[in-house]
Amino acid sequence: MRKTLPLLLLACLCVSLPGWSQELRGRVLNESGERTSGVTVQFQNKSNAITTRPDGSFKIMATKLPDTLVFSAAGYEPYKVVITEKNIKDPDFEVVMLNTRVAMDEVVVMGYATAKKRDVTGSVETKSLSEISGKVAGVTIAADEAIRVRGAASPGKEYYKASTESRAPYAASLPVDGKLYLADTNIAPRTGMAAKSRILTAGEVNDFNKWKMWEEYSENEFRALGIFWGVKPVNRYSVQLTDKKFRALVNEPVYLVSKLTGDTVWKAMTDNTGKAELWGGFLRNEKEGESYYITDRSGNKLQSPAAFANGVNLLTADRGCGLSADVDIAFVVDATGSMGDEIEFLKLELEDVIRHTMEKYKSLTLRAAPVFYRDKGDAYVTKHAALNDDLLKTLNFIKLQSAGGGGDTPEAVDQAMSTAIDSLQWNPEARTRILFLILDAPPHNEGKERIRQLTLKAAAKGIRIVPIACSGTDKSTEFLLRSIALATNGTYTFLTNHSGVGNSHIEPTTDKYAVELLGNLMERIIGQYVEAKDCGSDEKNIVQVPVRVPENILTVKLYPNPTTGNFVIESNKEIKEIYIADFTGKLLMKLGAADKKGRWQVNIGMYPSGTYLIKYVTADNKWGAEKLVLMRGV
Question: Which pTM does this prediction carry?
Answer without folding.
Answer: 0.81
